[in-house]
Amino acid sequence: GENVEQHPSTLSVQEGDSAVIKCTYSDSASNYFPWYKQELGKGPQLIIDIRSNVGEKKDQRIAVTLNKTAKHFSLHITETQPEDSAVYFCAASQGGKLIFGQGTELSVKP
Amino acid sequence: KAGVTQTPRYLIKTRGQQVTLSCSPISGHRSVSWYQQTPGQGLQFLFEYFSETQRNKGNFPGRFSGRQFSNSRSEMNVSTLELGDSALYLCASSFFKREEGEQYFGPGTRLTVT
């Protein structure tokens, strides 16, 4: 079955810096890759996603890139703000079920 | 538009008991998926329902079951609770009929088994 690896597990940046989180997946049949942000006491919030027929997608300060050949995808957050502090999860969709990475705890220091 | 709602938000049960959790999807969404979140195992897929039919199932024992009603609301049941079942149970709904639709999560039900 599908396996998703996510790195790093923790990431600390200064406000205004960029943050990059990387994920790799194992099953080439996976074709949908969402990213979620989870704040304490809340459910995961979908922040951006990308499908396998697209290489890059951007939404304001957030962008995601996908390299199907290498089976990896990345989340880029520019001009980070303290409110970006949260746990971020990548996922790969296999037949409708989401297989999640282990999460990255992002801390943005003012 | 209201988001995904889950009830109850918190639950404490004793080992051996059973529990039923409820999920109401976003209006118009017909797909409901359930996930278990624990510090050790992370987010793991339990099952997915679409139009009252289980369309997908994860690798959990038969003690975990679910169903979906004609109004798309879903329930999951865990029988003979074990200490290891303590977790945050998340429900996600999706509008798309195809499998690669965006899933929107509710706040979860925090289950503690003592």
Quick overview of this protein structure:
The complex is a heterodimer of chains A (110) and B (114). Chain A has no helices and 11 strands.
Describe the fold and architecture:
Chain A has 110 residues and is mainly β. The radius of gyration of chain A is 13 Å and the shape is globular. Chain A starts with a strand and ends with a strand. In chain A, strands 2, 4, 5, 9, 10 and 11 form a 6-stranded mixed beta sheet that branches. Chain B is mostly beta strands and 114 residues long. Chain B contains no helices and 11 strands. In chain B, strands 2, 4, 5, 6, 9, 10 and 11 form a 7-stranded mixed beta sheet that branches. Chain B has a 4-stranded antiparallel beta sheet with strand order 1-3-8-7, with no helix packed on it. In chain B, a hairpin with a 3-residue loop joins strand 4 and strand 5. Chain B is globular, with a radius of gyration of 13 Å. Chains A and B meet through strand 4, strand 5, strand 9 and strand 10 of A and strand 4, strand 5 and strand 10 of B.
List the SSEs and their pairings.
The complex is a heterodimer of chains A (110) and B (114).
Chain A: E1 4-7, E2 10-14, E3 19-25, E4 32-38, E5 45-51, E6 56-59, E7 62-67, E8 72-77, E9 86-94, E10 97-100, E11 104-109
Parallel strand pairs in A: 2-11
Antiparallel strand pairs in A: 1-3, 3-8, 4-5, 4-9, 6-7, 7-8, 9-10, 9-11
Chain B: E1 5-7, E2 10-13, E3 19-24, E4 31-38, E5 42-50, E6 53-57, E7 64-68, E8 74-78, E9 87-94, E10 104-105, E11 109-113
Parallel strand pairs in B: 2-11
Antiparallel strand pairs in B: 1-3, 3-8, 4-5, 4-9, 5-6, 7-8, 9-10, 9-11
Q: Output the radius of gyration of chain A.
A: 13 Å
Determine the structural class of chain A based on helices, strands and strand pairing: mainly beta
Order of helices and strands of chain B: EEEEEEEEEEE
- Most extensive interface, chain pair and sizes: A-B, 24 and 23 residues
Order of helices and strands of chain A: EEEEEEEEEEE
Report how far the terminal alpha carbons of chain A are from each other.
41 Å
Number of strands of chain B: 11
Structure class of chain B: mainly beta
Query: What is the helical fraction of chain B, as a range of percent?
Result: under 10%
Largest sheet of chain A: 6 strands, mixed
The overall pLDDT average of chain A reads 95
In the predicted model, the low-confidence regions of chain B spanning at least 5 consecutive residues are none
* Number of strand segments of chain A: 11
Mean pLDDT of chain B: 94
Number of helices of chain A: 0
Q: Treating each run of at least 4 consecutive H or I residues as one helix, how many helices of chain B?
A: 0
